[in-house]
Design brief:
With 449 residues, the protein is an alpha+beta fold. Helix content is 33%, strand content 21%. Strand 7, helix 6 and strand 8 form a beta-alpha-beta unit. Helix 4 crosses helix 5 and helix 11 runs antiparallel to helix 12. 35% of the residues are buried.
């Protein structure tokens, strides 16, 4: 069984990009946050901060207790996407990319001449060197070489940072036995509990499980795929269809009011509806979630939409349930998720003229914004939140470079030393504004009926 896949996983990606961009951050513990607030969590952590025990998800207040010299940097999604494309081009100077797994992961098929360990290792080292030369010295990756993508990902996680691990046919399954179950991609807290329920508590037991056992654990064909992947077999991933579209946002301190939460919900609905139309889906229902201070469960409600694709109908559906929220509590996070997605080809168009007109209006607004510049025409309820809730990047999804909520001129914001933004030293570095968009024109607001 030859090596078929090279899997490259960038190390501490967001933090490494900031260190590459800003020499003052190099060699220092750095965390990336969505907003400069003490109550937020770290979305990325530099290798220096990881050595001190700081992990992704750690609250900034806790991270400061662990490291008084911590540098807290506000995320700049557009910069990270730009670096993603530079990395992709660097890798492609050595071999073609099969697909991007996420913003910081790539897998590449190996040719017939590269499938033995010696030439594959030489090629992996060329990739590492190309990234350093063409992107930057502080941008490193861990590479896994394996018979399939699944084991390539596992191998890339076995030696960090800047590692290179090979898993050959002769290494299976014993090379996997030392791993924890959570080290395998796709096994998180719930899946771990399910495996334990079926008597699988170690990686060795997982590798030894029969095909029938794994099908029972996963409840279907996915278990059979796992059985093949663990043995190095090359199989295609099971076909999937999008089930939901959603967005969430942790509210900064100045928006932790009922009016602030509502304005951001309007912004998230607008963004989700735009994606819905762009990907040619219709939604049957919308789930709204608000997290509150000292309320562990938060408030969640599901709103039926019929067959919906337009922003105005979704905003009005949110308005209808808004009075039923816990009005006296202090909101800290909001989220919306569109459920019951139906592709255009299978959707039944609205029957009533008013509903059809709203869909047509939404599509006309999309066309105007596409031609004249993003947010040239928008729903009036977004006026107070246009600059808030900018696009964030999840690690398993890469947004479009022309996303309307990307900043054209990202500003680096860093808090140095102990304390909150009001007590620490804040450094801001602005970049020259881009000419992107339609400068000089005033945006137009469209009021919902």
């Amino acid at each position: 069984m030859p090596l078929r896949v090279m899997f490259a996983d960038m190390n501490a990606y967001f933090a490494s990009v900031e260190q590459q961009e800003c020499p003052q951050l190099r060699g220092r513990p750095v965390v990336i946050v969505p907003v400069l607030a003490e109550s937020t969590g770290c979305i990325a952590v530099s290798r220096e901060a990881k050595r001190l025990g700081i992990k992704g998800g750690t609250h900034v207040t806790v991270a400061r207790q662990m490291c008084r010299d911590l540098r807290v940097v506000k995320a700049r999604p557009q910069v990270y996407v730009a670096y993603h494309h530079r990395i992709r081009k660097a890798i492609e100077t050595c071999l073609p990319i099969g697909a991007r797994e996420s913003i910081d992961e790539f897998w590449c098929p190996l040719s017939d001449l590269e499938r033995e360990p010696e030439p594959a290792i030489a090629l992996a080292r060329q990739v590492k060197q190309a990234i350093k030369e063409r992107v930057g010295q502080y941008i490193t990756c861990s590479i896994g070489l394996a018979p399939n993508r699944f084991l390539g990902k596992v191998a890339s996680d076995m030696q960090k940072p800047d590692g290179l691990t090979v898993i050959t046919e002769n290494d299976l399954p014993h090379k996997l036995h030392s791993l924890m179950l959570e080290d395998f991609p796709g096994i998180a807290k719930r899946m771990h509990a399910r495996l334990q329920h079926h008597g699988i508590e170690t990686a060795e037991q997982l590798c030894a499980a029969s095909r029938k056992q794994l099908i029972k654990v996963w409840g279907g064909v996915v278990g059979e795929y796992w059985w093949h992947w663990l043995r190095g077999d090359q199989t295609h991933s099971p076909p999937t269809r999008r089930q939901t579209i959603g967005h969430s946002h942790v509210l900064p301190p100045w928006l932790r009011t009922n009016d602030g939460a509502k304005s951001i919900l309007n912004k998230l609905i607008h963004r989700a509806a735009l994606r819905l139309r762009k990907e040619r889906y219709w939604a049957r229902s919308m789930e709204i979630y608000i997290a509150y201070t000292y309320h562990e469960e938060g408030w969640r409600t599901d709103v039926p939409l019929g067959m919906c694709q337009d922003t105005l109908t979704m905003i009005q559906a949110m308005e209808a349930v808004w009075p039923f929220r816990p009005a006296m509590a202090r909101p800290t996070q909001v989220a919306i998720t569109l459920h019951g997605l139906i592709p255009d080809a299978y959707a039944t168009l609205p029957l009533f003229p008013e509903e059809r007109q709203r869909v047509q209006l939404a599509r006309v607004m999309d066309a105007i914004n596409e031609r004249l510049g993003h947010n040239m025409v928008y729903v009036a309820g977004l006026a107070s939140s246009k600059e808030e809730a900018p696009t964030r990047i999840s690690f398993n999804q890469l947004p479009d470079e022309d996303d309307p909520d990307f900043e054209d001129a990202p500003t680096r914001e860093i808090i140095c030393g102990a304390g909150s933004p009001s007590r620490g030293t804040t450094s801001r570095t602005s970049r020259s504004p881009s000419s992107k968009g339609f400068a000089g024109r005033n945006p137009t607001a469209v009021w919902p009926d």
